[in-house]
Amino acid sequence: MTLHTLKLPAPAxxxxxxxxxxxxxxxxxxxxxxxxxxxxxxxxxxxxxGDDQLNLHSxxxxxxxxxxxxxxxxxxxxxxxxxxxxxxxxxxxxxxxMGGGIGGGSSDAATTLxxxxxxxxxxxxxxxxxxxxxxxxxxxxxxxxxxxxxxxGIGEVLNPISLPEKWYLVLTPDVxxxxxxxxxxxxxxxxxxxxxxxxxxxxxxxxxxxxLVANKYPQVAKALDxxxxxxxxxxxxxxxxxxAEFDNEQQAQAVYAKLPTxxxxxxxxxxxxxxxxxxxxxxx
Length: 284
Prior knowledge:
The chain has 284 residues and is of the alpha+beta class. It has helices at 61-65, 70-82, 104-119, 126-134, 140-145, 179-184, 210-216, 218-227, 249-256, 275-283; strands spanning 5-23, 29-49, 54-58, 87-93, 149-152, 157-160, 167-171, 233-235, 242-246, 265-271. Strands 1, 2, 3, 4, 5, 6, 7, 8, 9 and 10 form a 10-stranded mixed β-sheet that branches. Helix 2 (70-82) runs parallel beside helix 3 and helix 7 (210-216) crosses helix 8.
């Protein structure tokens, strides 16, 4: 049976650590990070068109109007790669904060590639889709592959790992942090020693972007200061979201219930397997 419409989640992720090892001649950074998914997602619905038009609909006008919209960029790249005659109408339910470091845009782009590869019957492999995704962003391949990973290089060299599926309280400061701005800042710490995967769980995890972002964005510093009173807390990605880990949902919800009215956040469970994989498996 040929599919014409498909709705899929685009899950959030956390960088449980982010260590920057150096800067390359091309301006990109060598880093080591640990990715884990969360059971909180954006949702995208795709409907195949008989022409090559790509239309994006969302209640958030700034998403649709953005010239940097990764959803449409991903769809166009897939069109070019496969030379398909099809297009798509795409509807986005945006639940994840923009510029928050939890992968909203990258995850949306990855889900777009996975969904349209299915709807357009392009039959590209996971490796092919990851190669397309890396052209748009270093985080996209981990969402395409769909497994928690220890990442190296610029984030594209992925080694799947199994992590405890803890519960997290994630705070979402109302600021948009520019990844480019963070990685081009002269004061960014860029000299954390590299570690082997075997030694990963013997070192203290940190986020090398956190001091810079907390200093520049008082809202991020405030969220960290509040959360650290209840559990060790860190920033994810280049911010602005920060998180703390708990052994169970009850512990996380108990701290969430104390959240001041001027802070926002959510409780979510860590996942080693992306829910997108399970949704796609159901229709195979």
